[in-house]
Amino acid sequence: MSYRVIALDLDGTLLDDQKRILPESLEALNLARKAGVKVLIVTGRHHVAIHPFYQALDLDTPAICCNGTYLYDYIGKKVLESDPLTTQETSAVLDLVKQTDVHHLVYADDAMMYDQLSAPVQRTLKWSETLPTAQRPNLIKVDDFYQAMHDVNAIWKIATTTPDHDELRTLVEKIEQQVGLECEWSWVDQVDIAKKGNSKGRRLQRWVEANGMNMSDVIAFGDNFNDLSMLEHVGLGVAMGNASDEVKARARMVTKVNSQPGIAETIHKYILS
Questions:
Q1: Is 9 a catalytic residue?
Q2: What angle do CA 56, 61, 63 make, to 5 degrees?
Q3: pLDDT digit string (tens) for 46-80?
Q4: Fewest CB within 10 angstroms: 11, 16, 81, 168, which?
Q5: Is there a contact between 155 and 107 (Cβ–Cβ < 8 Å)?
């Protein structure tokens, strides 16, 4: 089987724990692109937080962002298609979140908005400081999320995080039942809330088919629950060795952990050989 598309999650997958792309991955992906294979970033991140990786890979394809909420054209600097949250949905989520100790960020337009300097925000700011100015993500502190959501055009997702997994699960159940939104675990302590029906797999399928291909033409790499919608529906879904046992069980194959060159080895075996 000759694959025509490589779909890549970033955190925990293409990126190692220091948020770097392994040189072996860069080399293999570059060779695949030269062989005519399309390479796509499919991430839970906002497009403003993937500049350095997009440029390092030298891509010409759009990026699938915020777990499939929208498709972003980096070259044209525009959103190609999207299914954002409404202000009513956002407000309903904020009402539930403020009854808890769960930290949250609102991803909208060209920025990630926060109201408290939580640990995840501090980590992102620290990472941002290591980047050239033009590649730094846009993080904005707001005093009032309810006001801020009326000052933007589109709300992509709300990222909720806490080390208290039980509290996060309880919040997620309420949001799913009372507001009817998509809630996906994107990290061990983070759940992303987006429009019902949005997923990495759904947006990837739309792009693949719009370009005259099928999901069977795709190899996808991922490590978390928000990757399952693509891992389970492509020609070859590959879970990282650092993925949870449940994600591994539902992927077609398992490769090495994200600090080792498993992605490169898989590309060489299934595409370049």
A1: yes
A2: 80
A3: 999 999 999 999 999 999 999 999 999 999 999 99
A4: 81
A5: yes
> Do 175 and 98 fall within a single domain?
yes
Q: Which domain holds residue 168?
A: 87-194
The CA-based angle 125-168-232, given to 5 degrees, is: 85
- Which residue among 9, 83, 192, 223 is the active-site one? 9
Nearest to 252 by CA among 219, 224, 226, 225: 219
Q: What's the domain count of the chain?
A: 2
